[in-house]
Amino acid sequence: MMNQLLSALYIYDMELPGDEVYYEELLRNQEIVAIAPQVYHLLKSQGKLDQVPDFFRQSLKEQYFQTMQLNLFVNHETNQLLNAFEERGIEVIPLKGVGFAESYFGSLGARKTSDIDLLVKEYEIDAAVELVKQLGFTVEEERIPGHFHCSYSKQLPGSEIPLVVELHWDLLKESTARFDIEEFWQAAQPLKQYSSIKEFSSLHVLYMIILHGWRHNLDSLKYHLDIIQLIRLFKEDVDFHLLLNMAGKHQTKKRIIRTLSSVYQEFPFLDYIKPFPYKSARKYLEFSDKKDGRSFYKKYTDYIDYQYFSYDTASHTMKEILATILPVKK
């Protein structure tokens, strides 16, 4: 159902839906909440806000400004952290978050952010942990065995939900890939006025966001929209052949192809923006079926396929099966 609206936002000569009933049904769909800030910003930046009904526009606007208010606070906390890392000369790369919203959606309020994700070098994890604790993030969150990050939080005044900083030293579990994070560091460039704070190359940003979408099994439209937005923004600079060569070397090729194929299947208008010539011939579970309580069997089989058969090698599949049967004790 969302396809009609998003198609008109990304294919500029397409008209927006004109039926008010359509927009009423959209607001009853909980998934609009996940992408309301992006949709509002896209409508506004294209001068199309007056082409949707008042009630729909007002709902999006409220969610956009709620997101902006929260993101302004998160941005302040992020800047404090980045300045502290810069002062100590600890290299760090912000992942997603408020910077992603500003850089790739064009507005601080255009994408919901719930925490602060930072990539640091593994040998500097202890120093990074000490730094975030000094800035008030003193509560250590539960660690997931075998994962590639640790998390610290602090309580916010007037909020039951704490603000979390995730310190990553990698982007994938070592047991499921032959991933070399050093390649990402070598291609990174200084961010704005900083020297120790870096940002990924455009290819690595896209790669990271696709893997992030895969890790969540594309269970929210926000993961689809992140990928769509980057493909539209980078467009001519996106080299899918280079992306898949890199994924093949890292043994993440099946994950990249699966995720992109699923997004292109869900939103066919992407072929007009940038064709993906490596699409899988198989049909993936549609997003509406993932959210449909009546499609338990479909969701179960899709989850099993995602959880255990998204890997390039049989050994990686076996390691994931064994991790489920014999989980590592904390």
Task: Explain this structure.
The chain has 330 residues and is α+β, with helices and mostly antiparallel strands. The protein has a domain at 201-322. It is 55% helix and 8% strand. The protein has helices spanning 2-10, 20-28, 31-45, 54-88, 97-105, 125-134, 181-187, 202-215, 221-234, 240-250, 253-266, 270-273, 287-291, 296-308, 314-325; strands at 92-95, 115-120, 139-140, 149-154, 163-168, 189-190, 198-199. The radius of gyration is 20 Å and the shape is globular. It starts with a helix and ends in a 5-residue tail after the last helix.
In spatial order, strands of the major sheet run: 1-2-5-4-3
Unreliable stretches (pLDDT < 50, length at least 5) are none
For the largest beta-sheet, the strand count, sense and barrel status come to: 5 strands, mixed
Radius of gyration: 20 Å
> Which series of helices and strands comes N to C?
HHHHEHEHEEEHEEHHHHHHHH
Oligomer: single chain
**Protein structure class:** alpha+beta
What share of residues is helical? 40-55%
Distance between the termini: 43 Å
Roughly what is the average pLDDT, rounded to an integer? 91
| Overall morphology | globular
Q: Total number of helical segments?
A: 15
Total count of strands:
7
% residues in beta strands:
5-15%
Chart the SSEs and their pairings.
Blueprint: H1 2-10, H2 20-28, H3 31-45, H4 54-88, E1 92-95, H5 97-105, E2 115-120, H6 125-134, E3 139-140, E4 149-154, E5 163-168, H7 181-187, E6 189-190, E7 198-199, H8 202-215, H9 221-234, H10 240-250, H11 253-266, H12 270-273, H13 287-291, H14 296-308, H15 314-325
Parallel strand pairs: 2-5
Antiparallel strand pairs: 1-2, 3-4, 4-5, 6-7
Helix pairs in contact: 3-4, 8-9, 8-11, 10-11
